[in-house]
Amino acid sequence: MEEFINYILKFGNLNKQQTDFLMSKAKTLELHKDEYFSEAGKIPRQVGFLLEGVIRFCYYNNKGEEITHSFSEENHFVSDQQKFEAQVVASEYIQAVTNCRLLVFSKKDWDEIGNTIICWEAIKGLIEKNCLLKTIERRSPLVSEDATTRYLSFIEQFPGLVNRIPLSHIASYLGITQQSLSRIRKNIR
Fold this sequence. Notes:
CATH topology of the largest domain: Jelly Rolls
Shape: globular
Order of helices and strands: HHEEEEEEHEEHHHHH
CATH superfamily of the largest domain: Jelly Rolls
Strand order of the largest sheet: 1-8-3-6
Low-confidence stretches: none
CATH class of the largest domain: Mainly Beta
Helix content: 40-55%
Strand content: 15-25%
Mean pLDDT: 90
Largest sheet: 4 strands, antiparallel
Number of strands: 8
Distance between the termini: 39 Å
CATH architecture of the largest domain: Sandwich
Number of helices: 8
């Protein structure tokens, strides 16, 4: 779980005793492809750190269409953070796109970490800010660019994902049909 500690240490300093305490609260969770980490209509029960695999965040629009709005890959946090912190019902799904292995923290343990490690709230705030900025950075071009440019940006931002996830999820993320994505892929080869 060295990846997790190294990730945390990018955002603040923790001593060995603090990192040991942090790891004592972590449990490992295996998710099979298509299983949910969190579901709309339910209260999120845990925060995860993705050790292996790919996760997607999605929702259903008012037409009942499934919309993928982001992906997470190894060495990133996975959570519906606002809903988790407030312990209110989630409005989106967090689903394993591949088989996944995560370190997870229950709400009780997450709160205990915050109450025990003095600088934890500051570290957590920096992590959340970083995650939000990356999401905005990745989503912003999707609004103004044409479909081919969006796909090329996707490949640039997620170089390891194109061959790991279904084209239907990529098309949904890009806001195009799967047929359009197939044409774009054919034209740029």
